[in-house]
């Protein structure tokens, strides 16, 4: 009887909390920032914490018009989208992680506090939350996976990886699926110089090399055979997976024939990957 009452209280508490914040117009607040959320109509299966791209917002990331949002909700996942820090001159929001730049917020502390707050409000297991993000949000996802791999159950960056100078080591094995467009011109697979000179200028602001990023993940996950173990070429994604790696780790790379977007079908592929781990 006590267990049933406790479960009912948790469910009602989550509903009341959701009525108070997390709706499209009303952000939930934690000590270091804010976030938005969407909850599936039926039973909750899991959760995704999703980081918006350059200039975006948490609210905008969860628009109902986005294919991946509707797919994830239909599969029973709570969607949580934090707000990045405001850029100067009204250029939207972003994340504080770029090597050599001032640290404006402890993003690890912020994102883990969002994880825990959302789990308590909406009634899911914080230990089963996926961290994902697009573009600069994908980069933030990659850096947190590198620095604190145990913070989330798995990592799924899209169109964003490390920046130069690349990290030379990470904390431990990860479960990670990186997705990238073959013709991405905003975050090219090889990276690009954004300002401050060219590729020979040490102080220039430069995106990283996704192939270097994958090499780092292979080293971190102890994938000592180097080459991939599985190849999947069905549908729009060309996928490579490394299986003979550290126990409990997972590493996969998915290319698609497109540019700087979250591609149609991504959420279905990513959740199939995660649920099959």
What does it look like?
- The chain has helices spanning 2-20, 58-61, 67-74, 107-122, 136-147, 210-220, 266-275, and strands spanning 28-30, 33-38, 46-51, 77-82, 85-86, 93-94, 129-134, 154-158, 163-164, 175-181, 193-195, 205-207, 230-232, 238-242, 250-256.
- The chain has 277 residues and is of the alpha/beta class.
- The chain has a single domain (2-275), classed as Rossmann fold (3-Layer(aba) Sandwich), CATH 3.40.50.1820.
- Strands 1-2-4-3-7-8-10-15-14-13 form a 10-stranded mixed sheet, sandwiched between helices. A 3-stranded antiparallel sheet has the order 9-12-11, with no helix packed on it. The protein has a two-stranded antiparallel sheet with strand order 5-6.
- Strand 7, helix 5 (136-147) and strand 8 (154-158) form a beta-alpha-beta unit.
- It starts with a helix and ends with a helix.
Secondary-structure topology with pairs:
Blueprint: H1 2-20, E1 28-30, E2 33-38, E3 46-51, H2 58-61, H3 67-74, E4 77-82, E5 85-86, E6 93-94, H4 107-122, E7 129-134, H5 136-147, E8 154-158, E9 163-164, E10 175-181, E11 193-195, E12 205-207, H6 210-220, E13 230-232, E14 238-242, E15 250-256, H7 266-275
Parallel strand pairs: 3-4, 3-7, 7-8, 8-10, 10-15
Antiparallel strand pairs: 1-2, 2-4, 5-6, 9-12, 11-12, 13-14, 14-15
Helix pairs in contact: 3-7
């Amino acid at each position: 009887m006590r267990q049933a009452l406790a479960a009912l209280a948790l469910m009602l508490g989550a509903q009341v909390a959701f009525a108070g914040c997390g709706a499209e117009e009303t952000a939930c607040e934690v000590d270091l920032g804010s976030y938005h959320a969407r909850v599936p109509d039926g039973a909750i299966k899991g959760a995704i914490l999703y980081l918006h791209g350059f200039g975006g917002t948490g609210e905008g990331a969860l628009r109902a018009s986005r294919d991946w949002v509707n797919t994830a909700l239909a599969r029973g996942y709570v969607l949580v989208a934090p707000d990045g820090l405001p850029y100067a001159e009204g250029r939207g929001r972003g994340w504080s992680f770029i090597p050599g730049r001032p640290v404006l917020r402890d993003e690890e502390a912020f994102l883990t506090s969002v994880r825990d707050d959302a789990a308590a409000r909406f009634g899911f297991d914080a230990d089963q939350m996926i961290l994902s993000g697009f573009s600069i949000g994908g980069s933030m996802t990659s850096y947190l996976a590198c620095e604190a791999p145990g913070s989330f159950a798995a990592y799924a960056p899209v169109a964003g990886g490390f920046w130069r100078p690349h990290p030379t080591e990470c904390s431990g094995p990860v479960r990670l699926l990186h997705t990238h467009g073959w013709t991405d011109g905003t975050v090219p697979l090889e990276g690009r110089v954004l300002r401050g000179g060219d590729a020979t200028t040490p102080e220039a602001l430069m995106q990283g090399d996704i192939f270097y990023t994958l090499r780092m993940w292979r080293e971190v996950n102890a994938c000592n055979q180097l080459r991939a173990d599985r190849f999947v070429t069905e549908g729009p994604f060309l996928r490579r997976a490394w299986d003979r790696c550290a126990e409990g780790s997972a590493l996969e790379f998915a290319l698609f024939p497109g540019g700087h977007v979250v591609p149609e079908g991504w959420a279905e592929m990513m959740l199939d990957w995660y649920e099959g781990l």
